Amino acid sequence: VYEDDEEWFHSIFANSVKEDAIRNQYEFFVQRMGGPPLYSERK
Keyword RNA-binding on this protein (predicted)? Predict the structure, then answer.
């Protein structure tokens, strides 16, 4: 997402912090694959 060349695509994530996006994705996939509900507990 952050290395994409398309400006319209960047604008979708303009208010996102890269580190927060990485954490959200990590916790979401851990939970989705049967791990602890880290994402749900934080959101």
Answer: no
Q: Would 9 be classed as within a structural domain? A: no
Chain segment 1-41, per-residue pLDDT in tens: 778 889 888 888 888 898 998 999 999 999 999 999 999 99
Q: Are 15 and 1 in contact (CB under 8 A)?
A: no
Q: Could you give phi then psi for residue 20, rounded to 5 degrees?
A: -65, -40
> What dihedral angle (degrees, nearest 10) is formed by the CA atoms of 37, 17, 15, 29?
-30
Query: How many structural domains are present in the chain?
Result: 1
Q: Which domain holds residue 23?
A: 16-42
In a domain, 35, yes or no: yes
